[in-house]
Structures are given as C-alpha cells and as structure tokens.
Amino acid sequence: MNHFDYQDGELHCEGVSLTEIAREVGTPVYVYSSATLERHYTVFAGALSTMPALRSPKEEAPLVAYAMKANSNLAVVRTLALAGCGADTVSEGEIRKAMAAGIPAERIVFSGVGKTDGEMAFALKAGIYQLNVESRPELDRLARVAASLNMIAPFVIRINPGVGAGGHAKITTGGAKDKFGISAEEALKLYAEASAHRNLAPVGIACHIGSQITDLTPMQAAFSRMRGWVEALRAEGLSVERLDLGGGLGVPYFNQPTPPNPADFAEMAALTVGNLGVRYTFEPGRLIAANAGVLVSRVVHVHERSDSGQKFLVLDAAMNDLLRPALYDAYHDIRPVVQPANDDAEIYDVVGPVCETGDTFTRDRQLPRLRAGELVAFMTAGAYGAVMGSEYNSRPLAPEVLVRDGRFAVVRPRPSYDEMIAREPLPQWLEPKGLRPRVALA
Ligand code: LLP
Q1: Ligand 1 contact via 283 beta carbon (within 6 Å)
Q2: 67 C-alpha vs ligand 1 centroid, how far in Å?
Q3: Mind listing the domains of the chain with CATH numbers?
C-alpha cells in the first residue's frame, strides 16, 4: 500500500500533485511519501511485536533496524527515526547519518564485509548496538582495534547459511560462493575463541540470504538452520543473547509474484526461530522504502526509427538516476502523471540520454501514447534509487523531495553546474586560477 494515487486524473503524493513538484523543482526528481514510509515501518514492526515468541527475555520487541543502504536521505531516515526505527548501516557515513537523523547509537547495527579499522573504531566509540562480523580477518582486526581503545566490542558473527535467494544473481547473498559471512563450522570456532578474548564480546549470530525475496520458503530454511546453530553454541556452554535475521523481504514491482505480507513473515519467524530467549533484530530496507518513492521524469521527445520502426520514448532521466534496470534488468512500472484522455497505446523502448545502450529502462513496453513535455513516474523507486545515483555524463544528481500531508520540501537539492565544476579544482600547473576560459561561453 502506498500514498500515490490519481486525483482528478493527475498522479498525486499525499495530496500534492507531481506536476506541481516537477514545475517547481524540475525533472528528473525523486518524490517520497512520509505516510508510506511510516506505514511500512509500523506494519512491519507491529507484526513482529504481536508475536510473544519473538520477545526477548526482558520482554523487548524485536529491533527493527532499517537498512539505510536502501535510502539514506537524512529526511527519510529522520522520518523513520521519529517512528521508532533503528538502523542497519554499512559504512561510517551511514552511521553518522543515522545519528544525525536522531537514531540512538544503541539501535545501530554495523554490517559489511570490509569495515576498515577507522570505521570500526568510530563505531565502538559511538557505542553502537553491535558489529556484524563477516570473516576471521575482520574479527582479528576488531580485536586489535578494541584493545587499542581499551574497549569491549559487542559483535555477532554473520553465518552464511548456504541458502541463496533473491530477485537477481547480483543481490543473492546466502550461497556458499558469495562473499558474505562464513560457514557455520568456522563461525562456531571463532565464537568460542572470541569468548576467551578480553576485548571481544560475542553476543550472537546473524544471517541475510538475499534481497527481493518473494517466497518465505528459503527464509524459513535459513532461519531453521540458525536455530540449530544457536542451540549448538549453547551446547558448548557459550552464551547467545541476540539473533539478527537480516532483511530481504520483497515488494511488488507490478509484474512479479506478490511477496509475503509482514504478518505471514512474522508468524513464520515466530514458529521457526521463536522462543529462543534472545533479542531479535530484523533489517528491512526495500520493504520500507521502495513503494514510498517515485522518480518523476519528462519526455524529451519520441523518436521512431525509419528502418526498424522501433519507437523510443526518450526521457530526461537516465541510468545515472535510476540504475536498477541497467544493472539488474529490474522492472519498474511506468505511469503517465496525467491520465490519458483516451485508450491510445504505443509500444515503446523507454530510454535515457546517456551514451550507452544499457541506458534503457525497458524494451517493448506498452504505455499510453505520450508526447514531448509530458511527465511519467517510475513507481517503486524509493529503495535503491537515488542512493545508487551518480553524475555519469556530468548529469547533476536528481533532487529529492519529501511530501507530508499536502506539503512538500526539497530534502536534497539538485546541484548547480557551477557547484559541480567547483568541486573539481584544477591543479596549479593546468589553468591558473581566474584565467578566463579560452572558449567564450554563450
Ligand atoms: N541486511 C543486509 C546485511 C543486507 O546486505 C541487505 C541488503 C539488507 C539488510 C536489506 O535488504 P532488503 O530488505 O532491502 O532486501 N541494490 C539492490 C539491492 C541490494 C541489497 C543488498 N543488501 C537492488 O536495487 O535491488
């Protein structure tokens, strides 16, 4: 469910017309709905908290640590922070942004396969909830960093449960040949070793098997293995206080199987890994942000090739703004912002202006007939959209707008060309500062 709908034939977000936003802010532009963000968090956290089997020994509900990689815009994270969310982070930058948005350190998890010593030190000094350690060399470095700070590092070990799942090979993380986590066997050994280390506090285990998972079966398989490993650790006399079950729940991208709803997921989790006497953590990203955002773009023109008859809908958005179709062949629903007056349809290749054939959002898609100057919206673009944007082809990063109940605000402005140029200082041996360009600008 989301808060984008047609009102009087025009696509709106929480009562604000996308045409109006495009007129004021320009295109391409990302638009996010506060109500959808809040609703997704509340429904997910609510479903988990109604499961007595998922309560900690202290009666705490699971920690829902929003995976900031999905959308780390400060205003988006702040909206979720105010709703009560924690954060799953993968860099010092994300930890800093989470804290800047008001998420308390004790609700921040730090994951990732290549945390640097500096990042680990920063996380420890900030007092975050836990580091999710992914390998032996990382654990060795964490021990050294913690010792140098005279601190004790609370961490969980990410086990790769050997169950791969996800919407595309590039976002599957649970297989034995993926770079994430370690085998259960090695994890159990490391856990025992770390328990004896004065600067390390192994507090539990973690897993995450992939993203855009639309079927509970692989998750259930992974969770039930996790239960076995908690029991195995305890059988060795080791203490296990936390269980982090990752993110990965899929969202409907229109043409895909309907993903499981949060209530079914929570029930499956309670039945499979409930009542273990641990504090549970979940790390949803896409589920919270994807349907809370759209990318609005304007049609530059329609080009019909005379040789093949192929019709190209050329937009002012490109792969640098929304990379998912180029990188994962991802499907995004494309809707006209103004509902067409008739049923005329065309088959288009929808493309951007970047100089690569890969800059194709979709091929042979039937859409209402569109003309130059009209607006379209890429739906379900709130997760892994703006965050994966770049300035390839020297195209300014698309701005981001947050809507709340009839109002909107620019929460990341489009950089000006002057700002982009000023970001790249010329070394002294090239063009002395202040020299006028040799080519006169119009
Ligand atoms: N936790 C860990 C350890 C992860 O690696 C990820 C995502 C998540 C949580 C959040 O997963 P989610 O709930 O969003 O599925 N750029 C790709 C998705 C990459 C996901 C990477 N890991 C895309 O656009 O589809």
Answers
A1: yes
A2: 7
A3: 4-29+290-422 (2.40.37.10), 33-285 (3.20.20.10)
- Residue 212 Cβ inside 6 Å of ligand 1? The answer reads yes
The helix/strand/coil state of 199 is coil
Q: Are 109 and 89 in contact (CB under 8 A)?
A: yes
CB 281 within 8 A of CB 44: no
Indicate if the pLDDT at residue 437 is higher than 70. Answer: no
- Angle between helical axes of 136-149 and 117-126 (0-180°, round to 10): 50
- Candidate from 160, 243, 283 with most ligand 1 atoms within 8 A of CB, to mutate: 283
Atom of ligand 1 nearest to the CA of 168: 25
Give the closest residue (by CA) to ligand 1 atom 23. Answer: 384
Angle at 244 between CA 242 and CA 250, to 5 degrees: 160
What is the chain's Cα-based Rg?
24
Q: Which stretch of DSSP H or E encloses residue 366?
A: strand 360-368
| Cα dist from 152 to 50, 108, 143, 145, 159, whole Å | 33, 16, 9, 10, 22
Work out the average pLDDT over 204-217: 94
pLDDT of residue 262: 96
**Nearest protein CA to atom 19 of ligand 1, as residue:** 171
Indicate the residue type of 158: R
Residue-wise pLDDT for 16-44, tens only, equals 999 999 999 999 999 999 999 999 999 99
CB of 10 closer than 8 Å to CB of 339: yes
Q: Can you give the pLDDT at residue 284?
A: 98
Percent of the chain with pLDDT over 90: 89
Ligand 1 lined by 259 (C-beta under 6 Å) = no
Which residue has 């709106």 as its token pair? 12
Q: Centre a 10 Å sphere on the Cβ of residue 114 and count the other Cβ atoms it contains.
A: 12
Q: Is the pLDDT of residue 289 over 60?
A: yes
Q: How far is the CA of 250 from the centre of ligand 1 (A)?
A: 10
> What's the 62 CA to ligand 1 centre distance in angstroms?
19
Tokens describing residue 313:
């809908």
3-state secondary structure of 435: coil
Contacts of 20 (CB under 8 A, 6+ apart): none
pLDDT tens digits, one per residue of 134-162? 999 999 999 999 999 999 999 999 999 98
Q: Is 207 a catalytic residue?
A: no
**284 CA to middle of ligand 1, Å?**
8
Directed axis angle between helix 34-49 and helix 74-83, to 10°? 40
Give DSSP secondary structure letters for 73-92: -HHHHHHHHHHT-EEEESSH
